Amino acid sequence: MILGVGSAVSGKVLTNHDLEKMVDTSDEWIKERTGIERRHVLEEGKANSDLATEAAQKAIEDAGLQSEDIDLILIGTVTPDTLFPSTACRVQSKLGAKKAAALDISAACSGFIYGLTLANSLIATGQSRYIVVIGSDVLTRITDWEDRATCVLFGDGAGAVVVGPSDGKRGILSTYVRADGSLGHLLEQPAGGSLHPATEETVKNKMHFIKMEGRDIYKHAVRAMRDAALHALKLAGVSSEDLDLLIPHQANTRIIEAIASRLKLPDEKVFVNIQEFGNTSAASIPLALAQARQEGRLKDGDKCLLVAFGGGFTWGASLIQF
């Protein structure tokens, strides 16, 4: 079950009006197509692990635990501080969680759902008792600020939860994850790994930035998120009418509206904060989860469905009784 939640964003904000001065775009165009009004950008000198650590600390405090109680730290991210050591290991050190194992999960925007799935299994089998699951990304560090199609989309942030044993009344009711690697080329960061190590040519050709085919992604995202949501509900024996809140990945409002329509959910049961944060990848859902809890939109006993889609392609859903 979810014992505590936390989040962290930079105080530096980049608005649509700021972007109008950088590329050929407009506030109206961005809001109409994405729903985004502003995004948070991590300050120079700060790292992904700083955001992740802050979010994790808040979640641990919210759960009434200490860092020494944590058995495992899982971080969904595609913007690690370094390829190795893992960002999770850096967070483990910053938290002082001395007995915790640590692992990064590379599943793009679905990373947090993948982390919840793994955490739920490890706790159910008795391998771990308390696990911190974090979604944290600094996509602005791999954004091409001259590409008007993508630079308007992304922001930085982190969200975290502490997962522990169920009390029999509340808990993670179901999880469902899938992938299709054949579609990975539609959303990728081409260079920086062993396939295309950093060279003068890869930098010149902007291969270290996010590349995406928006129209194709939309089609696959809507179908995959709908299917994942329905599978998670079916696994738990719950209907969409029984949901108190849907928290979808905040990619754009059109995708969110399409998923809500397919589940026949009214607006008041769908949480949207993309206007403030943009697409924060793996941080998207836990950021929204923390905000929903803070605003009283998510109360004890509520059934909340989390659903995401990301590069890879990866997708998944998790149904939680909070």
| Helix-strand sequence | EEHHEHEHEHEEEEHEHEHHHEE
Number of β-strand runs: 13
* CATH architecture descriptor name of the largest domain: 3-Layer(aba) Sandwich
- Computed over alpha carbons, the radius of gyration is 18 Å
Helix content: 25-40%
Name given to the CATH homologous superfamily of the largest domain: Thiolase/Chalcone synthase
Assign the CATH class of the largest domain: Alpha Beta
What percentage of amino acids are in beta strands? 15-25%
Structural shape: globular
What is the CATH topology assignment of the largest domain?
Answer: Peroxisomal Thiolase, Chain A, domain 1
The total count of helices amounts to 10
Number of domains: 2
Enumerate the strands of the largest sheet in spatial order, edge to edge or round the barrel: 1-7-6-4-5
Structural class: alpha/beta
Contiguous uncertain segments of 5+ residues:
none
What's the layout of helices and strands?
Layout: E1 2-8, E2 13-15, H1 16-20, H2 27-34, E3 38-40, H3 48-62, E4 72-76, H4 87-95, E5 101-105, H5 111-124, E6 131-138, E7 156-163, E8 171-179, E9 187-188, H6 200-204, E10 211-212, H7 214-236, E11 245-248, H8 253-262, H9 274-277, H10 284-294, E12 303-310, E13 314-321
Parallel strand pairs: 4-5, 4-6, 11-12
Antiparallel strand pairs: 1-7, 2-3, 6-7, 8-13, 9-10, 12-13
Helix pairs in contact: 3-4, 7-8
